[in-house]
TrEMBL record:
Keyword set, alphabetical order: Acyltransferase, Signal, Transferase
GO MF terms held by the record: acyltransferase activity
Tree of life domain: Eukaryota
Record's signal peptide: 1-22
Pfam families in the cross-refs: Transferase (PF02458)
Tagged with keyword Ubl conjugation: no
Organism for this UniProt entry: Zingiber officinale
Protein name, per record: HXXXD-type acyl-transferase family protein
Length: 430
């Protein structure tokens, strides 16, 4: 009994795995000349309806340039904010009732933390269930600060092995994935000794077209009890799908095309929609190349939503190569559809995308920049999105944890009753 009591006490003690050593607002170094400026958001920021925080963590080896990761990153964050001065501001409501950024220079909430019981190897490549609860890896300001007005928050959790975990929450109204990747890489550039960001940031929201806005889509009301899915696809598995498509069509396809086809068909087969019911695949496409004035360092939302819709039975029965063709056809229409949207020449708002259980929303984070952030000890061992959602089926493609070279899919795309069928459908490809 005494041994059992000691074990229970040890487990209770272990539940608090992270110690928050220091918490503060980090302001731009040297201040900012635009401290009182208010900046409007773009039509794409508003069209996406993205007033929420994206939660992401990345795990790193120790060593390199970093003797104290938290100190180095805190200092570099202040320097980066001098270039990204709006990020140190706050989201406010304008006189016209629209969200905009007030460049107050108040700063980014920054947390230095330690998880002295854990090494990088203990974290199991950030697979779920997380060894350290996500709430302990992500920053959370005190009630005296309104976090809904904040644009970005950051936490550095140092591990006993010298490795560390970066936890970030960024407001999707201000950043898309590529934009957040720019900002994190700017911090890393400065940590490694550069005088400033290698890619100069661009705010230029006025470069984004502003067609007449349609009435916003009503918020979803049906919630689903999604389970978490994680599947790794080896390079061999991915290439087999791509090679099969090439043999059948004499055309090439991307890794996204191949895996989106597999994931969509597997899910449609698993969830058992009525044969004549519509099934949807929704994915964002980067349109920076179609908005030339925005420049390479543009960090606002700059994506257009593409949707592929087919009857459920057709998706379930189609060869993977045929589904790849549908996806490539949708991607091929991007320039024309974006131009029509920019000119206001559309009846159905392309941003009012399907979000019911009949739709799979899939994003690709492999090239947005998160996997390239190097604070001096190398790129991250692994990256993981941590958002929980219950109103839409959403998944993300990531690079497989190093040193593997494949692709990792993580998501919340099926309920418990369909989990086993979804897993069985994917076994053919993993």
């Amino acid at each position: 009994m005494e041994r059992h009591a000691k074990l229970k006490l040890a487990l209770m003690t272990m539940s608090f795995t992270v110690t928050k050593v220091a918490e503060e607002l980090v302001a731009p170094s040297g201040g900012t000349a635009a401290a009182e400026l208010s900046l409007p958001l773009s039509s794409l920021d508003h069209a996406m309806g993205l007033r929420f925080f994206v939660e992401v963590v990345a795990a790193y080896e120790g060593g390199g340039l970093l003797q104290s990761p938290a100190d180095a990153i805190r200092a570099a964050l202040a320097s980066a904010l001098a270039h990204y001065y709006p990020v140190a501001g706050r989201l406010v409501v304008s006189d016209e009732g629209e969200l905009e950024v007030a460049c107050t220079g108040e700063g980014v909430w920054f947390v230095e933390a330690k998880a002295s019981r854990y090494s990088l190897s203990d974290l199991r490549n950030l697979e779920f269930p997380l060894v350290i609860p996500k709430e302990e890896l992500l920053p959370c300001p005190p009630p005296s600060l309104n976090q809904h007005e904040m644009i970005l928050m950051m936490q550095v959790t140092e591990l006993k092995c010298g490795g560390f975990v970066i936890g970030v929450k960024f407001n999707h109204m201000v950043f898309d994935g590529v934009g957040a990747g720019h900002f994190l890489n700017a911090i890393a550039d400065i940590v490694r000794g550069l005088p400033g960001p290698a890619v100069e940031p661009v705010w230029l929201r006025k470069a984004i077209p502003a067609p007449p806005m349609r009435h916003p889509k009503p918020p979803p009301t049906v919630a689903y009890n999604f389970v978490r899915s994680l599947r790794d696809f080896s390079p061999h598995a991915v290439n087999a799908i791509k090679d099969s498509y090439a043999r059948g069509t004499s055309n090439r396809c991307t890794t996204f095309d191949a895996l989106a086809s597999v994931l969509w068909r597997s899910r449609v087969r698993a969830i058992g929609l009525e044969p004549e019911a519509d099934a949807h695949l929704v994915f964002p496409a980067n349109v920076r190349h179609l908005v030339n004035a925005a420049g390479g360092g543009y960090y606002g939302n700059c994506v257009y939503c593409l949707t592929v819709t087919k009857k459920s039975e057709r998706v379930a029965r189609a060869p993977v190569g045929e589904i790849v063709g549908w996806i490539r056809e949708a991607k091929g229409s991007l320039a024309a559809k974006f131009a029509a949207w920019a000119a206001g020449d559309f009846e159905e708002d392309p941003f009012r995308v399907p979000i019911g259980y009949d739709a799979l929303n899939l994003s690709d984070w492999r090239a947005v920049g998160f996997h390239e952030v190097d604070y001096g000890s190398g790129t991250p061992r692994c990256v993981a999105p941590l958002n929980d959602h219950c109103f839409f089926a959403g998944g993300i493609l990531l690079k497989q944890p190093a040193p593997e070279q494949g692709v990792r899919f993580v998501g919340q795309v099926v309920t418990k009753e369909h989990e086993e069928d979804f897993v069985q459908q994917l076994k053919e490809f993993v």
